[in-house]
């Protein structure tokens, strides 16, 4: 247990967090960093989305950040990207765009909080030249069928030679599509099909500069192909019931992030929205003992010289949107008071205000929070009655560069979409 936590010597690095201007110390800490990763302790909390949006708005307006990359599927998020950039043929409202997010858990991106942020981005982009417009992209690996359809349809129109290879690749997976079982698909794949996935990515990358009938068409084709390549690795790990699937997934998200940074101009800066379990450095948790790495760790290792700031989030009590099991109806669930011995309980005990913690090297706060303490992580599948199992032992000052503590939070506001029950994929093995 961490003792004497409420010393006045710590207050310099723990400040009240009530309104956007209270983010000033965090914005100052970010400085000229090019990578800012913003977490969340659940995928269903209103305040995590709204505070991330406020931070992102300030980084875009004040620091010139170029795009937002999120823990979502590439094809779906690319529809948001096209809409906020006012591309031809996009729906008139963001609600229409989000209606197409029909994969469970639908509430994760099809919610009023994302709709509001998307509308702000569209308005901000309105008077900018296309290359300067802020983007919104998905980093995740799960959109096998959607990515395949996108590639085939696009290449049939733009690149018939490569389209033939795309059709061959699609045919390899087709027998398994009825069950939408990615693991089954991998087990049934012939080596020839696996080779074709890699060859398709190679071809698309080599020809990407020809796919510019509309802005970012080449980028879209390349990253849909990247999904296919890395999905193959992910399914292999899943088929062996092996935790290495986590490493494959997070490595894919970083590879996608790096591709996006290479695509944008040299001075590009990125804001990443993902669960704490992805953006908090895995080396400061018990994940490392299991041989797991994550996005935060890899980005720190690969881009330290460009400036990397990892920002975690957490709350003491309230409510959260989640499901009782995979594919279950979403529910507004109780988020119980944090358990004794957790960072959330410790910060609540100081006082019930929201707080911003900055981890500055050499500070008393840093020294106290280099020791391991429980830190709540809620997935899309959640049982409030088994709360004790939701805490990740974490060295907070090493896991993050800053932490937003929100004492009482509420569930986010979904667009009340029902997932297509016939297409619930074998994804999110850890529920986060």
Automatic annotation (TrEMBL):
Domain of life: Bacteria
Cited SUPFAM superfamilies: EreA/ChaN-like
GO biological process, one term: response to antibiotic
InterPro entries in the record: Emycin_Estase (IPR007815), Hydrolase/PRTase-associated (IPR052036), UCP036794_erythomycin (IPR014622)
Cleavable signal peptide: none
Protein name: Erythromycin esterase homolog
Organism in which the protein naturally occurs: Salinimicrobium sediminis
